[in-house]
TrEMBL record:
It comes from Brassica napus (Rape). Its EC number is 2.7.11.1. Signal peptide: none annotated. It is an enzyme of class 2 (transferase). One of its GO terms (cellular component) is membrane. Coiled coil: none annotated. PANTHER family: OS07G0107800 PROTEIN-RELATED, PROTEIN KINASE DOMAIN-CONTAINING PROTEIN. The keyword Aminoacyl-tRNA synthetase does not apply. GO terms for molecular function: ATP binding; protein serine/threonine kinase activity. InterPro entries: Kinase-like_dom_sf (IPR011009), Leu-rich_rpt (IPR001611), LRR_dom_sf (IPR032675), Malectin-like_Carb-bd_dom (IPR024788), Prot_kinase_dom (IPR000719), Protein_kinase_ATP_BS (IPR017441), Ser-Thr/Tyr_kinase_cat_dom (IPR001245), Ser/Thr_kinase_AS (IPR008271). The chain crosses the membrane at residues 376-402. This is non-specific serine/threonine protein kinase.
């Protein structure tokens, strides 16, 4: 038994134990995301994988069209009594096989073999349907099935062959009349799932038909959604170039370099990844492996490299300048080689930890860069005199500035609240912004009064104080959050929010414009979003039309992207802790942004949660596990997001004061038992939504709101599922729900042979 991978994604598991000497094959329709394709055979349970042949067949863009994902072959079959065909179906007493020697043309884009079109099967009992039954591997499996049909009998004037296709009792197409001696290939535009544990496909003759249904061939594919993106293609090419340059022989330097993580190449470290962000190489360690030649130029294409170790090899030549152009690079070890020349200025000025010992011919001082001039005594004397004068001036300026600063700091410290430092420690805030940028965002209290017109226009109450509308520079609208002096945790929360917002930047997170602190007056200045918060729109407090289903899904996706950034895009990762519809703000174009980070806290990467002594959040949205134990993690936010999604779906209150099922999850659970999506959806939507999209959204929301912390999905998984919901809804809006003249969708199991019933 062994596994097949396409790049970093599991394609299939091959079990050779029960084949009794027979062969097996796996087939997939896949669109590569790069110019290369990697098929990997991976050991499973200690066995040695093997392969007899690998065949690649290019296909045009006009066949096997899908909405998403790759297609794994489940079964392919056609009807013949000959044993010379691999894909033939075993004879069945309920079917009669027919054939013709006449030419049968292919009217589609599927290149059906001539021999396939010349043979077909019909029910032996002409009054019965042609029935195909199968059991899906999972209730969520989605299938594309292609039917290939051609009339190969000469029909009399009073004979008609017409039939319909049904899946689990639901008709999939208008009545079909196969064309005479011409293959018509039929497929639906959307994948199909089965409603129960068993799928049932019927080809049933219509009332006006005098002949039974006919089928020449079929193909069945299961949709596979490959969730793991491949390593950045430029970096893959760079690593292969490095491998070729140094003639490296590494057993596991095959397949994708970074993913899956348990198969990562030796000597590499890669960044974390999401469905929308491919992994990047952050560390390359090729020390003590006998490298010769110069430092490979391909290293410069590893643009996210943070650590490079080429020590204890036999490298020659100069230290290349391009190493100084790799922005994230913080550590370079080139010791124990035979490098020469001087160190590039770009490396000396970046503050990189640079290890160079053991390179006797490498000049590590500035004296070797240029020969000294013959008149050096004059230059030295003049330079020394200039330096002495400059130092004297600087000392005088420093004394004056320091005296003035001490006076200001002492005065300011008297005005500060006892828990607030006189100076904000920017380094402790982990901000990557330059100091002058942070100062530019600092406002005086008088400027805050001016921008809010003396706090005249209140927007409501925020996480720890009132929020006011204002203007910066007379034109830019802002929301000013003023710290409530009655808040016992106010100053601590204020500093936490400043520290956080100064280092968090994402298109779906509210931007911090500036802040102010003077004595007891503390304020945060945010960008102002004109369309208010999502809760106002759901409850009808905004005099605007109801947000339609498509827009709700878009808002949910954007909010999820903001949360995903907090969880995996920040270092260290962060938890919001107060995700709710009132904290999802909407701009002019109804683009969603998460607000109110006053309750956010960092948590240690790799642990997934931490204990917090201060319970924070909003009743109804708060993770029940956290509410009782103080257990805090990214999936606490996932729970809150699930409640938000249920609120968007149902427009029901999160906590009802009148219903027996007081919490929204209980209300939805009671409606799920009815099996009617209309009972769950917001009636204001007037049934204007794709039911499949709605069901998937409900299932996703309930999965997020699972009482068990470990059973909830990650935000990356949530984002992927929301994209699927949006695609279903977009398909409906594009009028693509019906069947094309050449397409029908069904799904089968390869172990089941069609029969008549």
């Amino acid at each position: 038994m062994f596994d097949l991978y396409i790049g970093p994604n599991l394609w299939a598991t091959v079990d050779m134990q029960n084949l009794d000497g027979n062969s097996t094959s796996e087939e997939i329709l896949h669109v590569p995301s790069s110019d290369s394709l990697q098929i990997c055979l991976v050991k499973n349970e200690g066995t040695t994988p093997f392969i007899s042949s690998l065949e690649l067949r290019p296909l045009g863009n006009d066949s096997y069209i899908t909405q998403f994902g790759s297609l794994k072959l489940v079964s392919r079959g056609y009807y013949t009594t000959s044993k010379n065909y691999i894909s033939r179906l075993s004879p069945s007493s309920s079917l009669t096989y027919i054939s013709t020697t006449s030419d049968v043309s292919d009217g589609g884009n599927y290149n059906i073999p001539k021999a396939v079109g010349q043979k077909a099967a019909i029910p032996t009992n002409a009054s019965l349907s042609l029935l195909i039954q199968w059991t899906p591997e999972s209730s969520n499996d989605q299938y594309y099935v292609y039917l290939h049909l051609a009339e190969i009998q000469d029909l009399q004037a009073n004979e008609t062959r017409e039939f319909s296709v049904f899946l689990d009792g639901n008709r999939l197409s208008d009545p079909i009349i196969p064309k005479k001696f011409e293959i018509t290939s039929m497929q639906s535009l959307n994948p199909r799932t089965c409603g129960g544990e068993e799928c049932s496909l019927k080809l049933t003759r219509t009332q006006r038909s005098t002949l039974p249904p006919l089928l020449n061939a079929f193909e069945i594919y299961r949709v596979i959604q490959f969730m793991q993106p491949e390593t950045n293609e430029t970096e893959v090419v760079a690593l292969k170039s490095i491998q070729d340059t140094y003639k490296l022989i590494r057993i596991n330097w095959q397949g994708d370099p970074c993913v899956p993580q348990h198969l990562m190449w030796d000597n590499l470290t890669c960044s974390n990844t999401t469905i929308s962000r491919p992994p990047r190489v952050t560390s390359l360690n090729l020390s003590s492996i006998g490298l010769t030649g110069t430092i490979a130029a391909a290293i410069q294409n590893l643009t996210q490299l943070e650590k490079l170790d080429l020590s204890n090899n036999n490298l020659t030549g100069e230290v290349p300048k391009f190493l100084g152009n790799i922005t994230p690079l913080l550590f370079i070890n080139l010791s124990g080689n035979d490098l020469n020349g001087s160190i590039p200025q770009s490396l000396q000025s970046k503050g990189i930890e640079l290890l160079l010992h053991g390179n006797p011919r490498l000049c590590q001082t500035k004296s070797c860069t240029k020969p000294q001039s013959k008149d050096f005594p004059v230059v030295i004397v003049a330079t020394a005199a200039s330096v002495i004068i400059l130092i004297a001036v600087l000392v005088l300026v420093f004394v004056l500035v320091f005296r003035k600063k001490n006076q200001y700091t002492a005065m300011q410290a008297q005005q500060m609240p006892p828990n607030m430092p006189a100076v904000v420690n920017i380094e402790n805030a982990n901000s990557h912004e330059p100091l002058n940028e942070i100062k530019r965002r600092m406002f005086t209290y008088s400027e805050v009064i001016k921008m809010t017109n003396n706090f005249q226009n209140s927007l409501g109450k925020g996480g720890f104080g009132m929020v006011y509308h204002g203007f910066v520079n007379g034109s830019k609208q802002v929301a000013v959050k003023v710290l409530s002096q009655s808040s016992t945790q106010g100053y601590k929360e204020f500093k936490a929010e400043v520290d956080l917002l100064l280092r968090v930047h994402h298109t779906n997170l509210v931007t911090l414009v500036g802040y102010s602190y003077e004595g007891d007056h503390l304020a945060l200045i945010y960008e102002f979003l004109t369309n208010g918060d999502l809760k106002q729109h759901l409850t009808g407090k905004r005099s605007r039309p109801i947000i339609n289903w498509s827009s709700r899904l878009g808002i949910a996706l954007e909010a999820a992207l903001g949360l995903e950034y907090l969880h995996i895009g920040c270092t260290p990762p962060m938890v919001h802790r107060d995700v709710k519809t009132a904290n999802i703000l909407l701009d002019d174009n109804f683009k969603a942004k998460l607000a109110d980070f006053g309750l956010s806290r960092s948590f240690q990467s790799g642990i997934g949660y931490q204990d917090s002594t201060a319970i924070a959040g909003t009743p109804g949205y708060l993770d029940p596990e956290y509410n009782h134990s103080g257990r805090l993690g990214e999936k606490s936010d996932v729970y809150s997001f699930g409640i938000v999604l249920l609120e968007m779906i149902t427009n029901q209150p999160v906590i009802s004061q009148t219903s027996e099922n007081s919490h929204i999850t209980k209300w939805v659970s009671s409606k799920l038992n009815c099996g009617d999506i209309i009972e769950i959806m917001d009636p204001n939507l007037r049934k204007d939504y794709d039911s499949n999209s709605a069901w998937r959204a409900v299932e996703l929301a309930m999965s997020c709101a699972n009482p068990s912390y470990s059973k909830r999905p990650s935000m990356s998984q949530v984002i992927n599922e929301l994209k699927e919901c949006i695609m279903c809804e977009n398909s409906r809006l594009s009028n693509n729900q019906g069947l094309e003249s050449r397409a029908i969708n069904i799904g089968l199991d390869s172990s089941v042979v069609p029969k008549a019933r």
